[in-house]
Amino acid sequence: MPESEGETVNRRKNLIAWVSLGVSLVALGLKYAAWAVSGSIALKSDALETVINVAAAIGGLWAIHLAERPADDNHTYGHYKAEYLSAIIESAMVLVTALLIAREAYEGFVHPQNVDAPWLGLVLNGVATAVNLAWGLTMLRIGRRIRSPALVAGGQHVLSDVWTGFGLVAGLALIPLTGWHWLDPTIAALIAVNVLRVGWEMLRQSVSGLMDEAPDSAILSRLNEVIAEKAVGALEAHDIRIREVGAITFIEFHLVVPGTMTVAVVHDICDRIEAGLRNALGRCVINIHVEPEHKAKDSGIVLAHATRCY
C-alpha cells in the first residue's frame, strides 16, 4: 500500500529530528574540546549554548512523535500543536542559556584569565560551526517546505549558533595578536545578546502559532481564488476562517446555494472546492456549512455566473 502524503511528511520529520540530534552531539563534542584546550570563556559560552541544542533536538523528537498521533476522544483536532509547544520550550531554554552566558561574561570581566592554546580551540570550534551551518540551513529549508514549527525553530536555533561561531572565531583570533584578553568576556557578552534576540523571535513565532494567527495575505487570496473557481453553481461564500497548525491548514466557511438545488449537486460542489483547496494549499481539514440563498451576506465572496469573484 503506497504511503500517504501525511505519512511521508512524518517520516521525513523523524529522520531530520534524529539527524539533528546526532549533529548536535558532534558539535557539542567539538566545542567542549575547544573550551577544554583553551580555557576561553567565550568558547565555554558557545559550548553551553550547544548543550541546549542537544536538549532541543531531544525535545523536537518528542514533539514530532506526539504530533503524529491521530485524533482521539480527548484531542478531536489531533495533536499537531505539540510542535508549537516544543518550539516554545526550546525558546525558553534559549533565553535561559542567554542569561547563563551573560553570567559567564560577567565573571570574565571581574576575574580575567589568559586564553591558552587559542588556535587549536578556534580550529575545533570552526569545524563545529561549519557542521552547524550546513545542517542549520538544511533544517530551515526542509522545515519551511513541510511546514514544521519544530524543525523551523530548530534550524533558527542552530543558525544563531553559527553566526555566534563566526564572530567568536574572528574575535578570539585577535587575542594572541593584540594581547587584548578583555576580548574574551566581551565576545561572550555579545554571544549572550545574540542568543537572547534569537530566543525572543522563536518565542514570538511559536506563540503566534498557538494563538491561531491568520496566515499571510497571499494564502488568503489564493483560498478565495480557489473557492471562486471551483464553486460552480453556488451563489456566495462568507464567514471564511483559516488557521495553520504545523503542516495542516484548517478551513471553514459558509456556502450559499439556490434553495432548489439538490443535496447531491451541493455535495459535488463541496467536493470540487475541497479538492481544489487541497491541491492549492496541501493538507487541509475543511468544514463547509451550506446555506440557502436568503442567508447571503454582502461581505462574502459573490460568485457571479459561478466563477467570478468580487
Describe this structure in words.
- Residues 217-293 form the Cation efflux protein cytoplasmic domain.
- There is one protein chain.
- The chain has 310 residues and is of the alpha+beta class.
- Helices cover 67% and strands 11% of the residues.
- The protein has 9 helices and 5 strands.
- It has helices at residues 5-38, 41-67, 82-110, 118-145, 149-172, 175-178, 183-210, 217-230, 263-281, and strands at 236-245, 248-257, 284-292, 301-304, 308-309.
- Helix 9 (263-281) links the parallel strand 2 (248-257) and strand 3.
- Helix 3 packs antiparallel against helix 7 (183-210).
- The longest helix has 34 residues, at 5-38.
- It is elongated and about 85 Å long.
- The model is unreliable at 304-310 (pLDDT under 50).
Main beta sheet: strand number and arrangement? Answer: 5 strands, mixed
Strand content: 5-15%
**What are the segments in which pLDDT stays under 50 over at least 5 consecutive residues?**
304-310
- Could you state the order of secondary-structure elements as H and E? HHHHHHHHEEHEEE
Helix content: 55-70%
Termini gap: 44 Å
- Kindly report the spatial arrangement of strands forming the biggest sheet: 3-2-1-4-5
Q: What would you say the CATH architecture of the largest domain is? A: Up-down Bundle
